[in-house]
Amino acid sequence: MALKTEELVLNMGPQHPSTHGVLRLLVELDGELVVNVKPIIGYLHRCFEKHCEALSYNQIVPYTDRLDYLASMSNNLSYVMGVEKLMGIQVPERVEYIRVIMAELQRIASHTVALGTYGLDIGAFTPFLFLFRDREKILDIFEATCGARLLYNYIWVGGLSHDIPDEFVPMVKKFIKEFRPTIEEVNELLSFNKIFIERTANIGVLPPDTAINYGITGPSLRGSGIKWDLRKNDPYSIYDRFEFDIPVGEGKVGTVGDSWDRYWVRMLEMEQSLRIIEQAIDNIPDGDVHEMVPKRIKAPKGNVYVRAENPKGELGFFILSDGKNNPFRVKVRPPSFVNLSVLGELSKGYLVADLIAILGSLDIVLGEIDR
Amino acid sequence: MYDLLTNLLGNQIVAYVIAASLPLIFVLTFVLFAVLAERKVSAHMQDRLGPMRVGWHGIIQTLADMLKLLQKEDIVPEGADKTLFNLAPLLTFLGTYAAFAAIPFAGIYVGSSTAIGIYYVTAVSGLVVAGLLLAGWASDNKYSLYGAMRTAAQIVSYEIPTAIAILTMVMVSGTLSLMKISDMQTAHFWNWWILGGPETGIVKFLLIPFMIITFLIYYISSLAEVNRTPFDLPEAESELVSGYHTEYSGMKFAFFFLAEYANMFAVSAIAVTLFLGGFHSPIGYLGHSLGIDWLVPVEQFFWFTFKGTALVFVQMWLRWTLPRVRVDQLMVICWKYLIPYAVVNLIIVGIITLL
Amino acid sequence: MKTPEEVYNILKEKFGEDVILSYDDSQPVEPVISVDPLKIHEVGKFLRDDENLLFDSLMVLSGVDDFNGKKVKDEEGNMKEEGRTLSVYYNLHSMKLNHKVLVKVSTPIEDPKVESVEHVWRTADWHEREAYDMYGIIFLNHHDLRRILMPDDWGERYPLRKDYEDPEYYNGMKVPY
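Predict the joint structure of the above. Result:
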């Protein structure tokens, strides 16, 4: 007699330790083997795009903070660049320098969370806290600058909300000096740990053409070996003035585009961000941090799509203006939203434990997926 | 011990009860401190302070936690099999606790100085699997079920290298009695079995590397048997939420917790007894040199707890350092590496003892 | 590297004026190429595969409620809206040739049907589901057109339409609070 078998449907989330928020995964399992994964999202939907249509251009900035709440500064930057492009505003040099420094600090902060929680997903607890200790220092710098630790509302249309304080430069320099040893520490403890490599190498291999077709961006795309970074390929702000490399996945311990590569690209990117900050920090020109922008911004009729290289990938804002005080339509292209859509294809045929490893390596934030 | 108690109290039953509850007191005290130690060890490894509020440096934090667990509502899921659900934590703890009966804590105290001590311990700790399997099955929760299936596969597999390692020790020492094995390693630390035991000459030196291998095999597989990182798959927080005890709360959860920590000490105690001289002091007794007889058992108890705790510390250290292996890798480690090594090791040690 | 105008001319040559409807460069930043909504998948495939264009990445796909209806009186004298359209904007980019173009399709709100480009760019999968969820644009030949952010049982209400009003109750829960 043939045994009758059927797949077990496991409902992972929205409350689950490693779905990185309120993501729900409908997983069909054959024993420990993943047959099918269906991500179900929308549990954190806050009507961001609807709100935008009722707010003035300035008022939207704090709402963008809440998209990718681990990289608020970068969200601000991307949105603000869009409005400035639409209105044709040139911001002062000083502002550009400070924005770049902030965005790079934010990138490091976001990557520390990504790498730390990835360790957690694999079962290593300690690197998580080591990285959080250093993220705390970045948050201290931000707090000294604008008073907030998570949602800053710092980068405004045409400028910044505050100028940097006097202790900003020494604080950043101190941080750079203290952070480099942490990278090495984490490499020793996690990156080249035999068990960690066994768990992540050759798992969830994302071929480059699939990655492009799915629109994967950021470290996940670079993990597949594609040298693509908006800071270099489609330069915005003043990134073309700095020297830095684009780390790509090389399949150092497994295949190009596996989970370990995505992890490793983030690790190397932190080093590159430090380099950019080092180049920028000594050259901040003097001047004002507010361009003359009217209180009530009226953007001309038209459309604009701007994108910036966020820690998680390409964050884009498609802004449609009808010439009134409020934007007619704001559409966000959240990197995590697009990156998550590949999960189903990526994790078929792996084990449950691998599913978690793959999900962690994509580094998603539900705040911007659900908006 | 019984004779002493029987003579003292004049009643055999009372004597038995007292003798049986002594390990319980020890286990409870140990768990109380082990939980705190785990939190403190992890905290200091991670640049944190750990619990600091309850008492001096959080020293009575675990007591407060116990109090909290006692007051918690006892939730039984609607679809759960009530009888089995309630039985599982007890069975788990029972299996662990029963193992303590044959562990010699000191020269004068062993629950039962049975001649087949190590055999009994191996057998009775198998009961733990049944408890965990029941817990996972009775919870009516998919995560629990997965945890339980993993536990069963893991513990049953890893019992084989454990048993072979123990068999090696039984072979070299020629006895199954834990008391006798302990007494063989008396006097000085170079009499420990990990350093070749009381053998002399060429045999001792030939034995040393293979004894170390045996110890490592035993220690690694014992880690898997007590579900500690890197083998904590049955609980695997990031995948299975909490594995087999996902649905447990309050006192029943506390029982699992108790069993886990008691089990950690139990396997360490066996390792200590087999390899590290048991309760014997590595450097001789103060009581003997001072001529105070009652000091000797106290010293023995101290050394036994000290060595056991040191091994438990290593378990904690590993937990906060290593990531978790995957379920297929777990099986590969066991069947492709540990078991073949253990068997080859057994044969070589057998040949050496024939010399 | 091609300018949007060159892309428009190539497209017009290939598909003709019936498909490639218009070119609007009155915008301050990006000109818009309008395309027939029922032919967009063919245009998309061409844009992706033609060796002069190679638009291999769909940066973003946004649904828009144009809200351009004109109030007219019908025979019975009731006011009704006419000519209102929903649009979908496709921001395309070529990673190999590094040029960008903005393509737009418009479809009447009464029967909003657009061909899906999900098979051309997999990015479009979730973006189209979102446009369907928020505007009720039906993407033909989409393999899995379900709501994505709103609950499945939200009904025939599309929150990002300009005339959207909250329902009084949702599953017995009061919505406005």
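Chain B has a mean pLDDT of 84.
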